[in-house]
Amino acid sequence: MSLLFFWLFLILMAIGMPIVFALILAPGITVMLEGKFVFTTMLLQRLYNGVNNFPLMALPFFILAGELMNRGGITASLVRLSQALIGHFRGGLAQVNILSSILFAGLSGSAVADTSALGSMLIPAMEKNGYTRRFAAAVTAASSVIGPIIPPSGIMILYAFIMDVSVGGLFAAGFIPGLMVGVGLMLMTSYLARKRNYPVASRPATFRERGSAIGQGFLPLLTPVILLGGILTGAFTPTEAAAVAVGYALLLSLLIQRTLTLRELPGVLANAAVSSGVILLLVGAAVSFASVVSLSGAPRILTQMVLSISDNVYVLLFCVNILLFIVGMFLDAGPAILILGPILGPTMVELGVDPLHFAIIMCVNVTVGLATPPMGLVLFVSASISGERVERIALEMLPFLAIEIGVIFLITFVPALSLTLPRLLGFL
Fold first, then answer.
1. What are the DSSP calls for 300-353, one per residue?
2. How far is 360 from 209, CA to CA, in rounded Å?
3. Domain range for residue 284?
4. Cα separation of 92 and 132, whole Å?
5. Distance of alpha carbon 178 from the chain centroid
6. With the CA atoms of 388, 392, 396 and 398 taken in that order, what torsion angle do they form, in degrees rounded to the nearest 10?
7. Furthest-apart CA atoms within the chain: distance in Å
8. DSSP, res 251
């Protein structure tokens, strides 16, 4: 099969067609034009099988758990905990924003949910406290990409499903890179706070106030401990862990903290169902598209092209990172993984890169793409919440983006940063 489907896909994307339909139509039109009708049934089967897969049940459950945590006011308790711990430093509210993103990452695994939940609370508070609106929006957007890096992560589940990589191993590989991004952003914020003389958010909290904040945040913070502990010890699968997350979120919100009512549940379920439907349809379309990619011999062609650049694996990894960064400017993380994973993954493994190592490189890279212009989704969410122009937020975000790119190259060229924990836990 020729590469006509690829050019059709680019044309359909360029004229503004939604990506899920471009993924379905490009191979379909190619099959029709080339008269290879025997592949039509295969494309439809792959589309169905891409959705009808047990491991993917984890995605709707994690999305629902995030909705329950957010609507149940658990986000607010994490913000209070962060403020009690570090709110008294210069630039404290900006630091609270970043620490809250780190804590929230273990609950939702979604950058958009992070931006929406934390941004709606902290952007107005930061502006009232003396920060510029664009800086507040930039910190929110930059820190929200931590969400899909620190597990649980929907993006990692997608990659693991498409590329047959261990979900538990990929989750374990995301811990240190996620913390590195968070610490790097906090150090940059501290430097900017001193340089620009940003205010101290509040007086140091008393031991009683900190104890109260820790008490309120303790049960929500047990969520990642329960989930990851269960997955990494083999007590339950990632799919079962997602169901446990929903049950725990319901227990917290409805019965223990009573921050969610039964009347609100239909709205939560509807939002989660719509989000899940969009993602699962996209997965099915991408699996169908990936089968055509394989038939066309594109991975072999790409391997030859890559090898023609250099035979040094580090040079090739550098080039792949640049490619992923550029792609991330235009594609969301999920589609980028679903489209490029089957092409780049086998190529890099053939060159001697560990599958789990490349998996975390790609997941972190396309996640950072969520906050890069011109098509970064969290930039648009942050702009919508703050009322600030996207380009002004993007310009203010450049120092933070430099930190995130630096982390990408660190985990690329120092594999131990991401692979040590999976190795210790027996995934390698």
1. HHHHHHHHHH-S-HHHHHHHHHHHHHHHHTTS-HHHHHHHHHHHHHHHHHHTT-
2. 38
3. 4-424
4. 14
5. 10
6. 130
7. 75
8. I
302-307 — which CB contacts under 8 Å span 24+ positions?
A: 302/343, 302/344, 302/347, 303/346, 303/347, 303/350, 303/351, 306/347, 306/351, 307/351
- Predicted pLDDT of residue 143: 92
pLDDT in tens, 80-101: 777 677 666 777 778 888 888 8
**Would you say 320 and 413 are in contact if contact means Cβ atoms under 8 Å apart?**
no
- Burial class of residue 398 in the structure, from the number of CB atoms within 10 Å of its CB (0-12 exposed, 13-18 middle, 19+ buried): exposed
Average pLDDT, integer, range 293-317: 74
What the block records as the tokens of 253 is 């919100």
Q: What is the total residue count of the chain?
A: 428
In angstroms, the CA 401 to CA 144 distance is 12
The predicted structure's pLDDT at residue 186 = 92
Q: What average pLDDT score do residues 365-392 get?
A: 83
Cis peptide before 152, with omega less than 30 degrees from 0?
yes
* pLDDT in the model for residue 237: 74
Give the number of domains in the chain.
Answer: 1
Quick one: average pLDDT of 385-392? 85
pTM of the model: 0.76
Closest to 56 (Cα-Cα) out of 333, 279, 360: 279
Torsion of CA 12, 18, 19, 22, to 10 degrees: -40
Backbone angles phi, psi at 183, to 5 degrees: -65, -40
Question: What is the C-alpha R_g of the chain?
Answer: 22
What is the Cα–Cα distance from 13 to 22, expressed in whole angstroms? 6
Label residue 153 left, alpha or beta by phi (over 0 means left) and psi (-120 to 50 means alpha).
beta
Q: CA-to-CA distance for 178 and 377, rounded, in angstroms?
A: 19
> Residue with structure tokens 């589940």?
157
Q: Which 3 state secondary structure label does DSSP give 153?
A: coil
- Identify which of 59, 54, 49, 110 has the alpha carbon closest to the alpha carbon of residue 290: 49
Residue 92: helix, strand or coil by DSSP? helix
Enter the tokens of residue 365.
């890279």
Residue 227 pLDDT: 72
Task: Please give the Cα distance from 330 to 194 (Å, whole number).
Answer: 34
Structure tokens belonging to residue 410: 């660190």
Closest CA to 163 of 10, 356, 317: 356
Give yes or no for a contact between 422 and 172, defined as CB atoms under 8 angstroms apart: yes
Amino acid letter, residue 159: Y
Q: Nearest 5°: phi and psi at 200?
A: -80, 130
End-to-end CA distance of the chain: 36
Q: Which amino acid is at 262?
A: L
Q: Which token pair is 131?
A: 């920060």
